[in-house]
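[audit] Reproducing an earlier prediction to check determinism. Same input, same settings, fresh worker. If the tokens differ from the archived copy the diff job will pick it up downstream; this log only records the rerun itself.
[audit] input (322 residues):
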Amino acid sequence: MLDNHAVAGLVGMPEAIDALQAAFADLAEGKAEVLGRQRIDCGGVKLSTMGGLWPAAGFAAIKSYLTVNGQFSFSTTGWDTDANQVLFTMTGDELTRLRTPALAGLVTRQTVGQGGKLAVFGAGQQGRAHVEALHPQHRFNSIAVVDTADVSAWCAEAAQRLQCPVRQTNSDEAIADADLVLTTSRSKTPVFDGVALKAGATLVAMGSSLPTGRELDDATLRRASRVVVEWRPQSLHEAGEVVLGLASGALDADCIIDLPALYRQQGPWRQSSSDIIVFKSVGIGLSDAAVARLIWQRWLAQQRGTKKNHLPGGFWAGEVSA
């Protein structure tokens, strides 16, 4: 049983991105499979599950999470598919905090160069995690932050730590000349005007996994040369930008491509330097499986030779509250 404290800091962002790349490459070749998200709702409480089967790596995982009053509680169970054995149960906050920015990094590794400007909409836990993850990969010249709350203190602290100007501003100023636009808000309506986007910009929309909400407007979708999604069967039903964009006519279905298709080389990530590329993420279970497997391997390596953590019938690490 692994809690957030036990697994925090075990895995770095570059290796998490590498794990995701390996999983999607195997998914493209039929060596992995995705269990799409299932949701049930009763009395205002939601229970969701999703999973990934990766026999090529000898691993499978199911992630479950409860949503109460807009707050999430995550748990992931991992199996050894060769031994048909449960390996662990992991509280999933650290896993989600790592997996989601790693997905963004997987795409920006292919579509965003060094330097330039990052615009961030939403400076909550995920927004901050994305800044921390993406800046070392791209070494931005400046970071503009948009949030409904006053996050200027965090911006000042981040600027000092990252050695990069980080400033809270409004949406128009943030979008101006931005090379990468990241949205991690909980907004159900568009957070900026896509007309103002710079040619060649990459957009990463991570904030919503509901078909009724979207952070990107029709203008953005009309200008996009390509809309990349994780896994087409799930995104066509869950991704608000996709669902609503197709319904309004702003998005052409031929512009949508998923990561397995890209790894099958059914098209380039970017055809020209002026293309606007959108990555719309809703989160899929194979991503959680790939990163959970990596965390588990690192935890085992850390615990080798520590007898107090090896108990009959399994492992225990950290403190789990009732």
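[audit] rerun output stored. Observation attached for the diff report: Residues 308-322 have pLDDT under 50 and may be disordered.
[audit] end
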